[in-house]
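Translate sequence into structure tokens.
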Amino acid sequence: MTAPHARPADEVLADLEVSPDAGLSEEEAQRRLERDGPNRLSRQKPASAWRLLVEQFESMVIILLAVAAAASLALGEIAQGIAIFAAILINTAIGFYTELRARRSMEALLRMEQASTTVRRDGKDREVPADEIVRGDIIVLERGSVIPADLRLVEVETLRCNEAALTGESMPVDKTAEPLEGEPPLAERHNMAFKGTSVARGEGTAVVVATGMETELGRISELAAEAGGGDTPLERRLDRLGTRLVWLVVAIAAVIAVIGILIGRDLSLMIETAVALAVAAVPEGLPVVASVALARGMWRMARRNAVIKQLAAVETLGAVTVILSDKTGTLTLNRMTVRHYALPDEEVDVERDESAGTARFRADGRDISLDDDPVLAAAVRVGSLCNGAELGETPDDAKGDPMEVALLRLGREVGRPRPDLLETMPVERVEEFERDTMMMATWHRAEGDGQGGGQGGGQGGGLLVAVKGAPDRVLEVSTRVMGRNGGAELTDEDRDAWLRRNEEMAGEGWRMLALAQKRAAHTQASPYEDLTFIGLVALVDPPREDAAAAVRACRDAGIRVIMLTGDQPATARAIAEAVGLYDAGDDIHVVHGRDLQPPDKLSDEQRERLLQATVFARVSPEQKLNLVKLFQDAGRLVAMTGDGVNDSPALKQADIGVAMGQRGTDVAREAADMVLKDDAFSTIEAAVEQGRTIFNNIRRFIVYLLSGNAGEILAISIASFAGMPLPLLPLQILFINIVSDAFPALALGVGPETGNVMQEKPRDPEEPIVARRQWGAIAGYGALIGGCVLAVFVIALYWLQLGETMAVTISFLTFGFARLVHVFNMRDIGSGLFVNSITRNPYVWGALVIGVGLMLSAIFVPGLSDLLQVELPGPTAIALIAAGTLAPLVIVQVWKAIAGLGRSGQP
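Result follows.
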């Protein structure tokens, strides 16, 4: 069946079997309600607390720890098994609490539904709950109405709808009842009104053609539900790392077990060795430290107005390569503003102080006073008088057409508020804006005003007629032009010149209105004849003050910022230039939504052309979603910002969705991973910086943890191959890994920003969290620490003959203290020896104090020392411990000092 927008209204009514005057009967409405179901959107079931808890255990590291704990219990090592299970519970508790705190289960799509609406049934207008509306219902629309379903307009009177949340169109859209040809984009279906939008002006009647999930809003909700999401890059990296560690443990344990059995070692000893290796290989503190580091980053971002809903998403922004940004409300203020007047004698700029709520006029570098400029004063006065909007105490409280609101706001800022004007010039008549005339007029009692700007064709009297509208229409009915020294005739050449000026300004992205006035003797005088033309006023939804700097910072960081908007190409181009989406002199190409094809229908040339574009205008929700997929398929890590319902599918599909907290819809906030409380694009820049810092910190503490574990594996493996006693017992390893190591690792994980991370290029999205360079460092550090521990163990056991228990005590303390001071080896190559990011981190010093105290407690606390099977060392043992502890630190620091002479970088 032909779409409703392409058919005459009477045909649509006939198909739906309804009369616009009588509406449906109650009986028929009830029948259709039972047939089609309520006018509701599908509920998206929020993640349960139980599901969040289960997710904490879906980690290879946790699974391996659980296996090690079970093996310990099977061998009768009860304390060891309990200790490992305690490590698992600590990690899951921290992750669960933080995720639960961050997760907001908002059933946002339902909140958008109006409680009731005016419906015509049985020939009478009455209020009906929105969820009881059915196809064929006749809806009565008036200013302020929220559209309850998708409607085909039947009759309209100056009807304009605000569709910004659905289509991205920043201005209210004029509506008509006439059929449209072809398949225009959603934003250009002017004879339709869509669920979730609202009436900005005028009134009308319409027939319901779609309800619930059949509406455009329902379709968008389905796209959002079907859109991807999945694991974040950090989660994928940590999972890959956990899988590698599992295979590493299995391989090493298998090799040692086979060799041990072949050389006749006891089977139970081999199992104990395998458990020790498992505990040594797994960084038990990794999940805890990762959760805390991410939580710390989440709280830091919250203080900087970025609320993270999912813990692992904290790091994702630091790796993004492309930001697909909505225009309205994200790069711009989503508030129309008067910026310029083109008057007969001068060009006047409007400069405003938003914090003070004032504005001033400037021309040719000088300030202009309204008292000294009658033409400018007339322009401001007409803009305020010929107006149907209302101002509130705050910009968000204003009601009406955004352009009219902007004119009223300017009048108030320059001392000409409409209420004051109406005290001396009360309204006598209003001619509402009509789509046919594209103009509006108001009559005002103005006896002795003396500023009529000419009598306009000989008409005079005590009324001032104020007119504003489309420039071509106003110029067409104007016969004179106002001047500073009096009026003059408006010639055809003058009209052409003004039209060219209007086209030039509109081409720069301005929204243009023309202003005119005349004197009249009575209210029955035609408003659109013999007008005196005053000039043009240019309005714009201005860029956010901090947007340009934030865009530049992202571009310097190697991140492409691309604009997606439902607005017109000229407006999109102007904003793109204003916020610096491209460099001066670049040939910017704006891709129109009608030129976009689904990804599977694109040729390689078309695909590459789209990947290189910077601005996309008049794009639909599905096209936004397809563009996100297009960039993801090309290997980009995509962040999507938006505030409207139309952005929600793309927000959910993106690697990280960023919604606006102030002006954003609940739908967008629910679909996103991050919400900006201040709606500022600059907050994204701060979040990118924080995300990069978090990744660097996580990589640093992973290197720290795994290098120590590598040392444990080396020492145990060599001792096992050599037939020696184990230098470290499983419970001792667990104590070091969980209790002692965790605090320095935490200090590294929550450390402040280091270096200029915003000057670095984005990481490869597929780059592992532990790359080849880091594995090399882990192996080197591990060999150094493990070798020193094994050396002092051999010296104590075989050369000094101190006994097995004391030798194990020496290797345990050597390893524990060596890992504590190993934190200083995590400084960047090229940084200062004594002043660097590690020594400036106060958490590191606190962690060392705690770590040293815990290691000493292992010796001096009787119950703990018995559990760990250690004894008090003597002077000789202490000397060995000191030598084994400091040797790795000194060797690494000397190497880094030499390496730092030629380059710099991470540890």
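Note: The radius of gyration is 36 Å.
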